[in-house]
Amino acid sequence: MATPVRSPTGSPGTSPVVSPAVADALAAGTAVVALESTILAHGLPAPRNRAAADELEAEVRATGAVPATIAVFDGVPHVGLTAGQLDRICSEPVEKLSVRDLGVAAGLGLSGATTVAATARLAALVGVEVFATGGLGGVHRGARETWDVSADLPALAVTPVLTVCSGVKSILDVGATLEVLETSSVPVLGYRTDRFPGFYRRDSGFPVPWRVESPDRAARIWAAHGTGSGMVLARPVPEQDELDEALHDRLLAEGLALVAERGITGKDVTPALLEHFHSASGGASLDTNVALVRANARLAAQVAVALSSPTSGTRR
Ligand code: PSU
Ligand code: MN
After folding, report:
1. Mutation pick for ligand 1 pocket among 38, 100, 168, 248 (CB with most ligand atoms within 8 Å)
2. pTM (whole model) above 0.70
3. Who contacts 302 (Cβ-Cβ below 8 Å, separation ≥6)?
4. Is residue 315 part of a domain?
């Protein structure tokens, strides 16, 4: 087992292994996009998750950037995975690792998928600035009693990474999540929208603080941000892939009731709700989910390319 070291950002853990393709790109100043693995291991069912893993990387490559999917194997974080490592994440029962779990995984030699929080942390550690995912974790409904607030929020507050996502799921308290992002000095930009996206739906019911029209503009804002906190670029699901509103509302009510009934808590809440959406919608939510992450991977790659372009003047 590798020797645990203190990372420069103060998190206990083990130095990440960077794949040759990602290391070359970073050395050359080529665009790199980090991709999350919890959506693969705990957000999408097999075998669709494995196909999605390839589709996401292909979207990034087709846009001219290098994909860096991130996960932990035998205690060691890896940035940029082999096909065999993607197979493991998508088929083996692996842990769900947030930032606090990285040191535990190192010490116990565990393998796991990384959440938004842990993926962003590891990306920042090796110098990857742009990250694509589906939805952020946030403040859960009923958090006033349960205190269930995703570690994604405090991580974005202190991690200099631009996260491209489709907002947050309506399984969360969207208003409270936006308030915490504001408190955390994390700017939230809507991509060609004035409404904060609600993952399966294009409009969560809340406005987005700022709007941008192009990847280049998002890259400029990111280059100027520079406070040490992260930034969120929220892209709504493509119109043709949006989940039907009535179906969405029914699945949400059922899912929330099911979690309460079964007494599901902690890190099992989000996967349980997602699983209910997928099984009870006959796969419709799955199509929506994959479509939005693919679109986010493409947009993230466009922003990363704009950042690394020698003529754009946006690279820090
Ligand atoms: N939101 C989604 N799909 C997901 C997740 C969030 O729409 O798969 C995953 C992400 O990895 C996120 C994590 O970081 O769930 C948040 O989990 P929790 O709520 O336990 O912090
Ligand atoms: Mn939680």
Report:
1. 38
2. yes
3. 63, 215
4. no
Residue 78 lies in a domain: yes
How far from the centroid of its chain's Cα atoms is residue 300's Cα?
A: 11
Share of the chain above pLDDT 70, in %: 94
Total domains in the chain come to: 2
Q: Among 188, 202, 230, which residue's Cα sits nearest to residue 99?
A: 230
Q: Which of 36, 57, 129, 242 is catalytic?
A: 36
CA distances from 298 to 62, 198, 244, 305 (A): 8, 19, 24, 11
Tens of pLDDT, residue by residue over 84-126, are 999 999 999 999 999 999 999 999 999 999 999 999 999 999 9
pLDDT digits (tens, 9 = 90+) for 219-248: 999 999 988 999 999 999 999 999 999 999
95 within ligand 1 shell (Cβ under 6 A): no
Active site residue 36: yes
What's the gap in Å between 21 CA and the centre of ligand 2? 34
Q: Are 188 and 210 in contact (CB under 8 A)?
A: yes
Asked if 68 and 123 sit in the same domain, the reply is yes
Q: How far is the CA of 155 from the centre of ligand 1 (A)?
A: 13
Q: Of 281, 293, 144, 300, whose CA–CA distance to 232 is shortest?
A: 300
The verdict on 109 and 229 lying in the same domain is no
In whole angstroms, give the CA distance from residue 18 to residue 87.
18
Range(s) of the domain holding residue 66:
1-128
